[in-house]
Specification:
By secondary structure, the chain is of the alpha/beta class. It contains 5 helices and 4 strands; from the N terminus they run αβαβααββα. The longest helix is centred in the last third of the chain and has 13 residues.
Length: about 130
C-alpha cells in the first residue's frame, strides 16, 4: 500500500486485482534473467515460473534458497554467487555478444549452485505447472 500511495485497504485490494504479467512474457525477444528468492513473500516463486513458461527467448533463473524479496540475509546469497556481481557479469556478457543457454540455477544454503531444467525445478518445489 505504501508504494502505491493508496491508504484505503479496500481500494488497494481492488487495485491489486488489476496487476498481472499475463501477455508480457510472450513479448520478450531478448535474453532474459531473473534473480529471485525462493521464499519471496512479495512475488511468490510460482508467479516467476508462470512468467518464465511464456518467455520463448533464452532465459535464466538464479534462485536463492531461503531468500526473500531482497535476497539478503539468506545463507544462499551470502555463500553463493554475489547477486550484484552475477547480474553485472551477465549484462557484460550480453553486451559482449555472448549467447546464453536456457537454464535454471538454484543456490542452496551452502552456496552451491545446482543446474536443472525448469520442469525439474518446478516439480521439486511442488509448484503445479499450469496448462
Amino acid at each position: 500500500m505504501y508504494m502505491t500511495g493508496i491508504k484505503d485497504e479496500g481500494e488497494f485490494d481492488k487495485f491489486a486485482q488489476t496487476l498481472s504479467l499475463k501477455g508480457v512474457g510472450e513479448k520478450i525477444k531478448c535474453p532474459y534473467l531473473i534473480l529471485a528468492g525462493e521464499d519471496d513473500h512479495l512475488s511468490p516463486i510460482e508467479f516467476t515460473y508462470d512468467l518464465l513458461e511464456t518467455v520463448s527467448s533464452p532465459k535464466q533463473l538464479l534462485l536463492f534458497e531461503g531468500a526473500d524479496h531482497g535476497l539478503g540475509g539468506a545463507a544462499s546469497a551470502a555463500l553463493g554467487p554475489n547477486p550484484a556481481t552475477f547480474l553485472a557479469d551477465w549484462f557484460k556478457d550480453r553486451m559482449d555478444g555472448k549467447s546464453i543457454q536456457t537454464k535454471h540455477m538454484k543456490v542452496d544454503a551452502t552456496g552451491q549452485v545446482h543446474e536443472s531444467t525448469f520442469e525439474e525445478a518446478r516439480k521439486a518445489l511442488s509448484v503445479p505447472i499450469l496448462v
